[in-house]
Amino acid sequence: MEMKSAALIGLGAMGVFFAPRMEEHLGRENFCVIAREKRKERLENKGVTVNGVNYRFPVCTPEEGTKKDLVIMAVKDMGLDQAIEDIRNFVGDGTQILCVMNGVESEERVAAVYGWEHVLYSYMRMSIVMRNGKADFDPYWGKVYFGEAKNEVLTERVKAVSDLMERCDIPYKVEKDMMWGLWFKYMCNVGENLTCALLGIPFGMFRDSEPANEIRWAAMKEVQAVAKAKGIIITDEQMRRQYDTICRIPYENKPSTLQDLEAKKKTEIEMFAGSMVKMGKEEGIPTPICWMFLEGIKVLEEKNR
Ligand SMILES: NC(=O)C1=CN([C@@H]2O[C@H](COP(=O)(O)OP(=O)(O)OC[C@H]3O[C@@H](n4cnc5c(N)ncnc54)[C@H](OP(=O)(O)O)[C@@H]3O)[C@@H](O)[C@H]2O)C=CC1
Ligand SMILES: CC(C)(CO)C(=O)C(=O)O
């Protein structure tokens, strides 16, 4: 089956990784951004500026939706419940949904409404910042990862989404073990985003500060333990190698949780630390570092109000 049409909900930092290339390669008539009311007006009147080019993508309201082959969801955690409702008219019998958000629970939340036959696992490995509708980034640095839980042999739907990404010139990877990939990314986010957010430090401080690294490592160990209870094995060696990756990130870069705090926005702390505390309780695994992140970062949000 060739996928010919797509809709995107969430034209933010992650959304702009997809939208320009999807509009160009699928054709304007086969691509739309889902939005309503003020957001729709803003996107139609001002658009978004990506690498210096201003785009006015076709915008459909949830009510105007028609079935699409692929739906990409790229909202933040707080917007997910609404977005799940808003995509309803775009999901037909053969539609596949990629919910590219961070965290390990978004696919389950989407599948609880639309069924697993419509949902593939997915996540993004890249860093893009969008401010005031503008983002500048290298469109070939970083990838979208997607697939079934295991991908030793590619299913028809994974092949179909891969083919669409190829045609749209969008870098992607089908990870053999998507559950491992999803949890590894989650572990890095919990360790890095939350340490940086609580302490107010950029990525580069992990190169210089041993205590910052101790906190990062302790948080990662909590995620490793919860992952193990769920049958996903992340080794210490794999965790150690992440340090080399961190050292390649520009010194002053800040993860999204700290960016959100500095912009006085609500963070995705519930998706990162809240989920860890909840899953830790369910599995009987102590998660004191994640608990401190959860409560501490909520205080920082309160300070911003
Ligand atoms: N930025 C990054 O580098 C990375 C982000 N991620 C993850 O990807 C996800 C998305 O993050 P990011 O792109 O940075 O977030 P952004 O805040 O940049 O983008 C989210 C977008 O969704 C829009 N939106 C929210 N609800 C709706 C809705 N109901 N209908 C239509 N549009 C909606 C928002 O619009 P509005 O602005 O009008 O509210 C906003 O444009 C998060 O889970 C994040 O953790 C993962 C890897 C890297
Ligand atoms: C960019 C990256 C990978 C940093 O942890 C991220 O996922 C985020 O900031 O939310």
UniProtKB/TrEMBL annotation:
One of its GO terms (biological process) is pantothenate biosynthetic process. The keyword Chloroplast does not apply. One of its GO terms (molecular function) is 2-dehydropantoate 2-reductase activity. Residues 177-299 form the Ketopantoate reductase C-terminal domain. Its EC number is 1.1.1.169. The keyword NADP applies. NCBIfam families: apbA_panE (TIGR00745). PANTHER family: 2-DEHYDROPANTOATE 2-REDUCTASE, PROBABLE 2-DEHYDROPANTOATE 2-REDUCTASE. This is 2-dehydropantoate 2-reductase. It comes from Faecalicatena orotica.
